[in-house]
Amino acid sequence: MDGFEFIFTLFGLLLGFSLVEVIAGFGRAIEVAVHAAPAVEAPPTRIGWLSPLLGVFVAFNLVSFWTAAWSLRDVIPVSYLALLFGLVVTGGYYLAAMLVFPRNIQDGTDLDNHYFQVKRWVLAIIIFCNALGAAGVALVGNNSLPGLVDLLFYGLLIALCFARGHRANLLLLIPIAAGYPLASLIAYAL
């Protein structure tokens, strides 16, 4: 076992649990919506678009962190500081993933309402994790300055934090979430 394998044993678990939180949230929402009793007096469960898109974004961002960690595997030092740094980032991702969907989804739950209750927390945590990840990259020797894509990404996330209304949130969430697969397709094509 090399140093990266040792360090990433812990972080891989936390990132994996984070992905499970997002996927399980999708599953709980679909299960309640599909099995809602039609005779119940509560309104039907409304999944909407906002929480699922936030979940897709969080999952894609998690995978991008995982990919970035792999690309730095040769320069990540085996030290308590590296473990602590990774714990803060991956722990933050887990917290953000936990918040995307409510723990108890019941008949009549409106996930768009839940989205507006938690979006600033989720986005603030993701911004923090990404900024801390960028600082970590700089600490291990990649001193590149943020590029235009990075600045656009952070700008969109900050704008989304303050966006009001369904339409404005959708118009910001769609390019944020779609940016990951599009960037991968462009990189693959080049």
Description of the molecule:
Helix content is 75%, strand content 0%. By secondary structure, it is mostly helical. It is globular and about 60 Å long. Helix 2 (50-71) runs antiparallel to helix 3 and helix 3 (80-100) runs antiparallel to helix 4. It has one domain (3-189). The model has no long low-confidence stretch (mean pLDDT 88).
Coarse shape: globular
Please outline the major beta sheet.
Answer: none
How many structural domains? 1
What value does the average pLDDT take? 88
Tally of DSSP β-strands: 0
Distance between the termini: 34 Å
Q: Strand percentage, roughly? A: under 5%
Question: How do the strands and helices of this protein lay out in sequence?
Answer:
Blueprint: H1 3-34, H2 50-71, H3 80-100, H4 111-139, H5 148-162, H6 166-189
Helix pairs in contact: 1-2, 1-3, 2-3, 2-4, 2-6, 3-4, 4-5, 5-6
Task: Considering the chains and any ligands shown, give keywords for the structure.
single chain; 190 residues; mainly alpha; 0% strand; globular
Short description, anyone?
By secondary structure, the chain is mainly alpha-helical.
